[in-house]
Amino acid sequence: MTLKQLLPLFVLLFAAASSVSAQNVKKLTVTEKVKVSGDLAREPMVAEAPNGDLYVTGYRNGSTSPQLWKSTDSGKTWQMLDVGTVADGADGNSDVDLVVDDTGKVYFLTMKFTKVPEDTSNFDWSSMKGIHIALGQSDNGGEDWKWDFISQNDFDDRPWGTLASDKSVHIVWNDGNGVHYRVSEDNGASWQERPKIHDLGGSSHFTAGPNGLLAARVSPMSASGNRFDAEVDLIKVSKDLGKTWNSVPLPGMREWSPELGKGLPRWVEPLAFSEKGELFHVWSEGQVLKMGVWDETQSDWAITTVSTSEQSIYYPFMSMGEDGPLLTWVSGMNETLKHHAAVLTQKDGTWHVHEMTPTALPEITSRFGMGDAMAVGGEYFPLIQLQNGDFAMITTVQNHKNQDYGFTWWRLSLQ
After folding, report:
1. Are 12 and 380 in contact (CB under 8 A)?
2. Can you name the residues that pair with 351 across neighbouring β-strands?
3. How much is the pTM?
4. What are residue 282's DSSP bridge partners?
5. Is residue 312 helix, strand or coil?
6. Residues 6 or more apart from 390 whose CB is under 8 A from it?
7. For site-directed labelling of 277, which of 144, 154, 215, 354 has its Cα 20 to 30 A away?
8. DSSP letters of 107-166?
9. Can you tell me the distance from the alpha carbon of 90 to that of 111, in angstroms, rounded to the nearest whole number?
10. pLDDT of residue 260
């Protein structure tokens, strides 16, 4: 048989092999969606307690106290918890984070921000700023709360909390004068303020790993965009539960604009540790989403392209699952806007991206009612792995025209 005669056979064999390979790749599939209507929940966070109870929070600028929902039936139904009043110290209407420790105790971080009046015709948008960071703690499933102020400085911004390998609780935030840091080694009974992790920059993300590892992403933008330090763009890593910190160079390329609303949107630059202590970082280079992996045995970051798009990719978020990182991001704007989610697994040194079908969410429109076009609903949306192996994702519901607000609980699995 000649080469010319064999060529069609090679094509058929290659097509068959490609088809089998495609069929064997699992996809991140939506298995349940629950819409929870009521109050707006922007930039939501989600956490699961050891007993399986689920908690979701998100902020509403006009709220008088922080918002927290709980589900005791695996996300099928949700109830809003009474976390207290402003007089109790439950005072926050902006960035939020949740930590649940091994005992089921809930740590609820919330930021207070300038409220936007209903009539914005004469409102000075440049006057907006952070006012304080508050922390609520509940050790009985959210029935009772104790509130304290972590900080009460002008321009307080973007708190993050994490549970370290020794079960101590760590909190970071920024105020235009560096990344501040507090720690509790006694289950929240007392808090120590430690030296700043960095003297300038924003608290873009914060995560904990095994054996005392902690990592903070320090970005140029801080104080809710009121300060920009172009020379600050790095990762700080601690190997001793936050007692000392070293700088780690960033992988890849990225550009920051000193003016909010200009250039590629950036805010959270996510980090996560694997169980082996590898540090993961995800970032956008315009139309390419990249992931870097680093540990001390490497001379440089190992970089993988996660996704490419004809549209801009921005606002990535990441947590760590059993088999690899869990990612969310958005692409495009207005009529081309899509929300993305993916689970990454590694085999034979190659990362495989198991992506959810990119999804348009018309229930999310622009903030403060400024138009009917689709919007992102905040600078990130979370994806975590549940104890039963499934995945949970939360997106906001924000439609001013229809007066439709709340959040959507998504259950996903690899199929």
Report:
1. no
2. 346
3. 0.93
4. 291
5. coil
6. 31, 411, 412, 413
7. 354
8. EEEEEEEPPPPS--TT--GGG--EEEEEEEEESSTTSS-EEEEEE--TT-EEEEEEE-TT
9. 10
10. 86
The residue type of 171 is: I
Q: Which residues of the chain have pLDDT under 50?
A: 1-23
Tell me what pLDDT residue 24 has. Answer: 57
Distance of CA 177 to the CA centre of its chain: 23
> To 5 degrees, how large is the angle CA 381–CA 104–CA 239?
70
Cα–chain center distance at 138: 23
Residue 229 tokens, joined: 């330090």
Q: Alpha-carbon distance 404 to 215, whole Å?
A: 38
Q: How far is Cα 190 from Cα 201, in angstroms, rounded to an integer?
A: 27
Alpha-carbon gap, residue 339 to 332, rounded angstroms:
9
pLDDT at 232: 97
pLDDT digit string, tens, across residues 107-164: 999 999 999 998 888 999 889 999 999 999 999 999 999 999 999 999 999 999 999 9
From CA 199, how far away is CA 218, in angstroms rounded?
Answer: 10
The pLDDT of residue 228 is: 97
Two structure tokens written together for 29: 């599939």
Residue type, 258: P
Q: What's the count of helices (H) and strands (E) in the chain, helices before strands?
A: 1, 30
Q: Tell me which residue has tokens 């068959």.
A: 16
SS3 content of the chain, % helix, strand, coil (to 5): 10, 45, 45
Tokens of 367: 């903030």
Residue 324 tokens, joined: 């690899």
Question: For residue 261, what pLDDT is reported?
Answer: 85
Q: What is the DSSP letter of 198?
A: E
Q: Are strands 391-399 and 404-414 parallel, antiparallel or unpaired?
A: antiparallel
Show the tokens assigned to 45: 């966070």
Residue 372: name the closest of 400, 343, 331, 330 by CA.
Answer: 400
DSSP secondary-structure letter at 101? -
